[in-house]
Amino acid sequence: MANPEKGNHRWYRIAWLRSPKPVFAQDREYKSDLPAFVIRLTDFSFYFCFEIPPIHSFYPLQRMSALNSSYDVVIIGAGHNGLVAACYLAKAGKQVLVLERNDYIGGATTSQRVFPDYDARLSRYAYLVSLFPDKIVQDLGLHSISLKRRKTASYTPYIQNNQSKGLLLSNEDAQLTRQNLEALHPEDSSGYQKLQAVNQIVAEKIWDSFLHPLQSKQSWMEQFVTAEEKAAWRWLMERPIGELIESHIHDDILRGVVLTDAKIGAFTHAHAPSLLQNRTYLYHVVGNKTGEWRVPVGGMGSVAQALEQCARQNGVTFLTDSTVTQVVSGEKHTIAFTQNSISREVKTSHLLVNAAPEILNTLLGKATHRTVEDEGTAFKINLLLKRLPRLKQTGVDPSVAFAGTFHINQSYSQMEQSFRQATAGQVPSVVPGEFYCHTLTDPSILSPELAAQGYHTLTLFGIDLPYRLFTGANETVKQQVVAQYLQGINAFLDEPLESCLATDNHGHYCLEAKSAWDLEKEIGLPQGNIFHNALSWFYAENEAETGTWGVETETDRIYLCGSGAKRGGAVSGIPGHNAAMKVLSQP
Ligand SMILES: Cc1cc2nc3c(=O)[nH]c(=O)nc-3n(C[C@H](O)[C@H](O)[C@H](O)COP(=O)(O)OP(=O)(O)OC[C@H]3O[C@@H](n4cnc5c(N)ncnc54)[C@H](O)[C@@H]3O)c2cc1C
After folding, report:
1. What's the whole-model pTM score?
2. The predicted structure's pLDDT at residue 102
3. Which of 26, 171, 317, 384 is deepest in the core (most CB within 10 A)?
4. Residue 571 C-alpha to ligand 1 middle, in angstroms?
């Protein structure tokens, strides 16, 4: 049986206790892509119980035997982008097959019961949504997706003259935010506002274009007309983001808070000539024209679930535990895959690849070209807390401080140093990162009992911890990094975080850590890059790309529909939409 802690299928338990009548109780959510019977002889002398899968759990088996020899579209990967593509294509009447190597659907957008002893479904990988266009929600009728605003934008604790302080930026109280910024430096409130105005100009201009074919850079430049618009173009598209930050903000901590948007998932620095940091920053500030990051109610898995439901309702066929092993292009492409160790083959008119571009190259037997920019840097720690820890800074309620992005050791100068050390192959002496407590915005990912007892989930996203640091000694380096993060946050807490951590039935802390190396192994992200590869510009970067959807590959009728396509990256569904439009634009 597949891992019972994953997936979304429900099992029902029929239990005969000593009661004269059978008791029907809905059990936990269990995963079952292949039906299985479990008989539990719990206590021979008194009762026994057994579980049977609901009828829809048998569907995969039916589909296995009834798999068509050919489809209009095969999609490799059931990440959220593959699901978006599947929905659009099936709605347009195409016969679609999705092959997914994992035993669950959703790729990096999944909620899982990470700590089996506790009924808490954590967003195991991705956790916040900003870039998922309202248009896709409307087109596909994804009305069950609900995104909730966090009351706090961010809190950054720091120590000054031996005193514990913190920078709180509120999403609800503009006056408080202004005061707090002015306390850092008299000009930083207005500087910060001007910087946000630059973001706003660009977001307003470019956001809608993400769901249309690519325009040339020249054509975009001509659309930035006024002096402010031209300046915004220059700041974000021509000059390293460090120049924008340094010319608008004086304070080292606030500079760092802004710079984090340019470094999440990208191994780069404020002044990199490649402008990878600018592209990363853009993706963090233009989503739905506001750049706000919101919490998906029910966890990130609820996004994938809504899409899966839409796809199934429109007749999409899913095969999980199905790893594609080879693609042979032709008039009809041949897709070879193994499903539960059985080799199978299917033909398709169009192939969409939700997996990373590097994986497509391997499947086609082509060489892989990695660039320095493609190296991933991500470190995720998932935690379950019995209670929120008290802060050293007096007068700040932890339920306010932890409700937003809780930055630690992410000042501008600290991140200059951490980047330098990581580039030299060392784990930074002070590791920068940000914590999030999603249950303060959406407690529904906890069982009512855990919520009532004051439990919370906490997650950390770490930066400047590139893939290269973990090859060869993943577990040892991970342990070292976890210890550094605990030490890092404890410097700002009035009680050690460890004292607030839940423990499992074996007495172990409810804490799991994932390095870039783990992300490659577990969810197929090459070099642990959370965006599959380096993020692209939103415009055509050469003449050949102009007018394309940014999903095309060298092979006819094989398209990327994942994060690695142009304008892919993050939980957006954009490349999924664009790949579907490409297919539908063809005869
Ligand atoms: C730790 C982490 C945190 C993140 N946080 C955020 C966040 O908060 N907000 C945000 O917007 N983005 C975040 N991201 C990025 C975001 O999750 C991804 O950019 C996005 O989910 C990619 O979606 P996708 O559908 O394109 O690809 P994926 O989710 O990577 O899906 C690709 C699918 O292809 C499957 N596959 C691969 N190879 C094969 C094969 N040979 N055969 C069959 N199937 C195959 C994989 O199993 C996978 O299911 C985060 C990512 C990570 C890893």
Report:
1. 0.90
2. 96
3. 384
4. 8
